[in-house]
């Protein structure tokens, strides 16, 4: 048995936390001769239109440099809101500029002074640079980005060398320079490094929000069109499901029928898919039915992330061949590493001729903007956006550039779960973090009421994932108790006698841990050694006593540094391969067993967490995602006194305590609102 002392030595603070400045000491690029690097050799698409620069106006830069409160009180921002389609372009241009300004500052966190680079091999053209905080992806660095390096101590006449990123690992990048760099390089030479922000996705989004015709469709009339006899429509348009798993689910079947009937057009159709209800299965079935029934159908299927787009591809590939479906990837993705042999056959480059005859095109929303720039005809009959709740609205517009006035738009997602990741507190306050689905559903007099007679959308209600007790509280707090637990009993009841449970037949456990939350080095992320030790204890019980497979366990925590520490601890104890990640990593995924480390143990800096949407407290959507991933068993470790400050966690803790799954002293109710969030 490993002692807590040994765990502390393994995971303890390597160096004191020292906040890294977000401003550069000096712009060492000024007046320097720049030696160009060697770009990654991507195939160059033949775009028909030139993408404008969309530089941030100087006037807005002067506003964004102010504090959040001062910026929001300026005449340019204080009355800025999305009233209707007429001010759409100005509204989102401003918010995107605010987000870009923040990301440009955030990239400075990767800047380094006096560091060494290692050559990957004597004859290798690549140099490896360790980048603390890279795994946190705030922001991301991708293949094709570039850095500038200057030898330490060089005056302003010294050269700056541009290096292009050719490989990205968990905590390092591989950079390629021109041969001239070798003249100043040695293994112990120290360099100053400056990172640059890749503006291309932002430029694509700016370009997209000029599509006036499509934008008008995103403000549907409040006049609800209700058919005379919905039952008759359902009966008259019944169909034989290709995916037999949906045959007995009336909500999924109804969604497919309504998508095919197109009564919602020109407004978007919404498939509201709470956790575990099969929204991706539903829209894939709709795509296949459309292909079977209509000869001239051509579908663009998008998602905000590559992983979500790949899920669509996998589901489509079960019954559709590579001559019907094409997966268009961004040039920086290594297809050989990402896909198995059979899925690789579906992948095409950004060359119009290679996919113009395919019936279904799958891509991310941003890559769909590149497809639009190729200049092909807008001949898509339908555009489907999966995980639309995770995309910024301009991101969805980037895909919708490919729509004509006749194109049907279908959005699938859950406005109750995590929305898009937004880094700028100003942009967040003004609404960039609100997804298109959330905006449409929450509009006053919205036609999206998801009633039995609604033709604009369907809410799925049968949850195939979780044990009823795991589903109980989130169902009450977020879904009006409309979800019905329909999971496979052989899975959801498989651990009711687990040694890891506090109370047999109750699949939830909470363990009170009053640990210390810490930071280290230059990383602002938090970790908690005591909670990591408790997670290890539970994993041991599950694997060694209950014989649960490693691949059936997922560990969720809101902080990247805790992810890192838990991975180290698990590998040290031969639990390699355990899936450990942040809440964002786990959205859309599930495991029979989910263990959650909440990390924070002191109220200090909670306002900072709240401002930047970190952690679990006062983050209802993050809470909702975390507690709806488990199928058969869920354990949470954390400081109950801190969690009790949050209404959602308080309700959950009370339920677990009543049912007998709570370990530790239960917090006392208090009227003291000083620390309430």
TrEMBL record:
Domain Helicase MOV-10-like beta-barrel: 110-195
Molecular-function GO terms, alphabetical: 5'-3' RNA helicase activity; ATP binding; hydrolase activity; RNA binding
Main location: cytoplasm
Keyword Transmembrane included in the entry's annotation: no
A Pfam family this chain is assigned to: MOV-10_beta-barrel
Domain DNA2/NAM7 helicase-like C-terminal: 433-640
Top-rank taxon: Eukaryota
GO biological process: regulatory ncRNA-mediated gene silencing
Localization (cell): Cytoplasm
SUPFAM superfamilies: P-loop containing nucleoside triphosphate hydrolases (SSF52540)
InterPro entries for the chain: DNA2/NAM7-like_C (IPR041679), DNA2/NAM7_AAA_11 (IPR041677), MOV-10-like_beta-barrel (IPR049080), MOV-10/SDE3_DEXXQ/H-box (IPR026122), P-loop_NTPase (IPR027417), SF1_C_Upf1 (IPR047187)
Protein keywords: ATP-binding, Cytoplasm, Helicase, Hydrolase, Nucleotide-binding, RNA-mediated gene silencing
Catalytic activity reported: ATP + H2O = ADP + phosphate + H(+)
All residue ranges annotated as the DNA2/NAM7 helicase helicase domain in the record: 249-318, 332-424
Protein EC: 3.6.4.13
EC class (word): hydrolase
Protein family per UniProt: Belongs to the DNA2/NAM7 helicase family. SDE3 subfamily.
Protein name (record): RNA helicase
The organism's taxonomic lineage, starting at the top: Eukaryota, Fungi, Fungi incertae sedis, Mucoromycota, Glomeromycotina
């Amino acid at each position: 048995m490993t002692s807590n002392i040994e765990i502390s030595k393994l995971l303890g603070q390597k160096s004191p936390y020292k906040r890294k400045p977000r401003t550069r000491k000096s712009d060492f690029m000024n007046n320097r001769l720049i030696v160009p690097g060697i770009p990654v050799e991507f195939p160059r698409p033949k775009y028909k239109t030139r993408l404008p620069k969309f530089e941030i106006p100087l006037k807005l830069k002067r506003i964004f440099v102010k504090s959040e409160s001062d910026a929001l009180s300026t005449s340019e921002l204080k009355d800025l809101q999305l009233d209707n389609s007429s001010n759409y372009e100005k509204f989102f241009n401003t918010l995107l500029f605010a987000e870009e300004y923040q990301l440009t500052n955030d990239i400075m966190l990767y800047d380094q002074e006096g560091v060494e680079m290692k050559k990957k091999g004597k004859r290798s053209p690549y140099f490896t640079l360790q980048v603390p905080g890279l795994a946190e992806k705030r922001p991301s660095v991708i293949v094709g980005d570039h850095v500038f390096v200057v030898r330490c101590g060089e005056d302003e006449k010294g050269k700056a060398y541009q290096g292009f990123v050719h490989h990205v690992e968990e905590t390092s990048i591989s950079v390629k320079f021109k041969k001239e760099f070798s003249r100043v390089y040695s293994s112990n030479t120290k360099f100053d490094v400056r990172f640059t922000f890749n503006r291309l996705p932002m430029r694509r989004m700016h370009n997209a929000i000029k599509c006036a015709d499509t934008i008008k469709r995103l403000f549907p009339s409040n006049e609800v069109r209700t058919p005379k006899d919905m039952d008759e429509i359902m009966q008259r348009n019944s169909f034989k499901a290709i995916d037999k798993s949906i045959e007995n689910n009336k909500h999924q079947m109804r969604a497919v029928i309504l998508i095919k009937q197109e009564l919602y057009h020109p407004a978007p159709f919404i498939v509201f898919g709470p956790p575990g209800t099969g929204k991706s299965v539903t829209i894939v079935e709709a795509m296949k039915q459309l292909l079977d029934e209509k000869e001239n159908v051509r579908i663009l299927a998008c998602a905000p992330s590559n992983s979500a787009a790949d899920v669509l591809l996998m589901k489509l590939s079960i019954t559709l061949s590579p001559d019907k479906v094409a997966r268009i990837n961004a040039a920086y993705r290594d297809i050989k590493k990402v896909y198995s042999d059979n899925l690789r056959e579906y992948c095409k480059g950004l060359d119009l001729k290679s996919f113009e005859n395919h019936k279904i095109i799958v891509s991310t929303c941003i890559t769909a903007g590149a497809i639009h720039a190729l200049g092909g005809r807008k001949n898509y009959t339908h555009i489907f956006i999966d995980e639309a709740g995770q995309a910024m609205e301009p991101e969805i517009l980037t895909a919708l550039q490919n729509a004509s006035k006749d194109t049907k738009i279908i959005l699938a997602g859950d406005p109750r779960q995590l929305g898009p990741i937004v880094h700028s507190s100003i942009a967040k306050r003004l609404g960039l973090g609100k997804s298109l689905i959330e905006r449409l559903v929450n509009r006053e007099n919205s036609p999206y009421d998801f009633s039995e007679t609604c033709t604009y959308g369907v809410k799925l209600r049968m949850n195939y994932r979780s044990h009823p007790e795991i589903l109980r509280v989130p169902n009450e707090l977020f879904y009006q108790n409309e979800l019905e637990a329909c999971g496979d009993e052989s899975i959801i009841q498989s651990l009711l006698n687990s040694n890891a449970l506090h109370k047999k037949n109750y699949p939830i456990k909470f363990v009170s841990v009053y640990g210390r939350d810490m930071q280290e080095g230059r990383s602002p992320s938090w970790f908690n050694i005591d909670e990591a030790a408790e997670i290890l204890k539970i994993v041991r019980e599950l694997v060694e006593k209950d014989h649960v497979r490693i691949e059936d366990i997922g560990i969720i925590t809101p902080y990247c540094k805790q992810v890192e520490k838990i991975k180290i601890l698990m590998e040290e104890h031969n639990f390699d391969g355990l899936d450990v990640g942040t809440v964002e990593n786990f959205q859309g995924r599930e495991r029979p067993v989910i263990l959650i480390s909440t990390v924070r143990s002191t109220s200090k800096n909670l306002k900072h967490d709240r401002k930047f949407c970190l952690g679990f407290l006062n983050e209802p959507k993050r809470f909702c995602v975390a507690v709806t991933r488990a199928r058969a068993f869920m354990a949470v470790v954390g400081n109950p006194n801190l969690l009790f400050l949050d209404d959602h966690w308080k309700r959950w803790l009370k339920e677990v305590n009543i049912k007998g799954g709570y370990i530790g002293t239960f917090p006392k109710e208090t009227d003291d609102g000083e620390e309430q969030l």
